[in-house]
Each structure stands twice: as structure tokens, then as C-alpha cells.
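Subject: Sanity check before I submit

Could someone independently write out the C-alpha cells for this chain? I want to compare against mine line by line before I put it in a report. The sequence has 146 residues.
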Amino acid sequence: MKKLIRRIKRLLQRIFKRFTSTSEQTSPLINSRPLETSIPSVSPRWESGLVLVCSQCTNEQSGSTASEDLENWLKSRLKIEGLWGEFRVVSTSCLGVCPKAGITVVIVSNGSGGNSPCLIVNPRSDVYDGLRLREVLYSYIKQNKK
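---
Independent answer below. Compare away.
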């Protein structure tokens, strides 16, 4: 996953270099106007973290709603603890991990130091060392708070 992210970053850097070096040229696709090289950016409310929950993992497993249940539980828990604005839980399509049993969850946060952990949460075996996996996942999210 780290290698893929680094490769994507390098590719984006090369693309941006090309655009900035050819910013004086015009594009035939945009009515011969110069290409716009500045992309507006915003500071999202969820600056502490983004939790990606794969919705495809359980679709492959007999149309289960386990990923939706996990996503809704995480949202509720963050709202109860007052962290819903800082963290955001988002359902996403395939993340390319495709576990045989479980849901892929990626935690992207400022506090993770560039490492975005990719976790597999198995909804069938919800208890690990006496703790509920959802609670373990939630505490892991809170640890990554900036």
C-alpha cells in the first residue's frame, strides 16, 4: 500500500510539472484558452482523519450489510463522543485488498505519520481477546487523532 501511494505521488508530481511547464501553451480541447493550473483547495472539517470502509467486501459475501452496519456504528460512536466533525467515516468501493472473510478499513489521518493502516475487520468473529473488535477499531481511530 505504501509503495502504491508513493508511486501515485510521483506520478502526480510529474503531471503537475508538465502542466506548469506548458502553462503558456493552449489546449485545443478548451477553446484555445490557457490551461488552468491552480486547483482550489479547502480545509475540510474532518482534518483529524478519514475512515474508509469498503462496501464491496461484504457484497461479495452473499449481499451482507455488515460493512454498512460497521460504518453506521462508527458514525454513531464518533457522534456520541463528539468527534464526528474531526473524523469522517466514508463508504468506498473496492480498495483492492479483497479478504475472504472481513471488511477492509483504511484509516487516513494526520496523526498516522504518513502510514495509513489497512485493517481487516471480520464481522463474524466480533470478539478478540475479550474485547469487541468494533471497540478495538474505534480506539485505534482515536489513537490516530492529530
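---
OP: Matches mine. For the report I'm noting this point. Residues 26 and 34 are 5 Å apart (CA to CA).
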